[in-house]
Amino acid sequence: MTTALPPHTTEELRALLAPPGNALLHELRHGLGGPYHLLFPQRFDANAAAFRQAFAEAGVDGRVYYAKKANKAAVFAERAAVGGLGVDVASHGELREALAAGVRGTDLIVTGPAKDDDLLRVAVLHGALVAVDALDELDRVLALAGRLGRAAKTLLRRLPPGQPHSRFGLDDGEMELALRRCRTEQVVMAGFSFHLNGYDICERADLAAELIRLCTRARALGLRADQVSVGGGFAVDYVDAQDWRRFHESTRPEHFHQRKAFSGYYPYHSPIAGADALAALLSTNPAGEKSSLADLVRAAGVTLLVEPGRALLDQAGCTVMRVQGVKERDAYDILTVDGSSLSLSEQWFGSEFLPDPVLVPADRADRADAGPYPACVGAATCLESDMLTWRKLPFPVRPAIGDLLVYHNTAGYQMDSNESPFHELPLPPKVVIEPSAHDSASPRPRWRLDRHP
Questions:
Q1: pTM of the model
Q2: How far apart are the C-alpha atoms of 39 and 253, rounded to whole Å?
């Protein structure tokens, strides 16, 4: 029998999974007519406050930018605007949505490779910070700023020395040329940025220290250079450490439908995650330094920027699908739900979203609690490979048509980074869950649809 991987959860979600709160989940499925996502904006606010607190406790001048690519919902950009966060955008559509949510142009940072001219034009006009990824992009920014008659605010993106084959960033020679090209009134060179794959805190601290030293070099050329962005890369802790260890120790090919094998998984347990990872980064001594990164930032008079997406969305959403078919096999069931694996985007990376979904049974008299009942989960499409969960999950009761599956903590990238209306199936709508009104006698939460189409 496959090992259970119960997800970390929250009080507000637990209240919706058990009676009487689970009635709302079934009512929403009936009213919306298909799978849907739940969003919890108060969790976003709490995560943002924790990141700010980490900066404050380290005595560092820091700025938090929400990486909008992590979720398309309007509500999170709206919460960022109200809370005074910046927003990291990488397309003209994301920039437009952030502005519509109330985020000021000067609170935007524009990232991504080879940005098109329309995106750069709007960014410069609104005073957004542009992370320049290549020399030809810098030339286009300079020419555009000249035509518009205003200086463009830029960061120069560094190619990570430890990831020399990355397609992003400027190497040593390109960086030197870029610095010299920035000695013009057409640009305000605000500093440097980088983005690392993975979650290695020491590697991130080492590269941040290098960029602080680059600020000193840039200032000697007469450039402002007082900001350093360390990007995202703050892990989320989805499951308990012991459950994660047991999963790796006990998992065998027969625990997966068709003996499916994966080359690797996201680290669903992380002992240092979210704002705690930022605190650990700030307290780390970079290689060759006797002082912590926080001390180096303060001494250099630099503002440290972070661009978390997934970590700001920890516990800020979940995905709900209805069981619409149960096919019996010799030793397990194959469930078919009313959604697609593209709403759990790890499949796109050749991997699996591992935290167990929670079964919310419909009211039925034949329900038996003599589990576990192993079952994998397939999508309502004609593709053999379209599986939401290849792993044979150990359900406490036998799933049946009309039951709901709730996949926890999917707001960070999972729920919509690869969604598709394949088979003309509608995209799952997003439902914003908010606490009951203060003057209401009912503890039942309020809900509304997110305004993003």
A1: 0.95
A2: 35
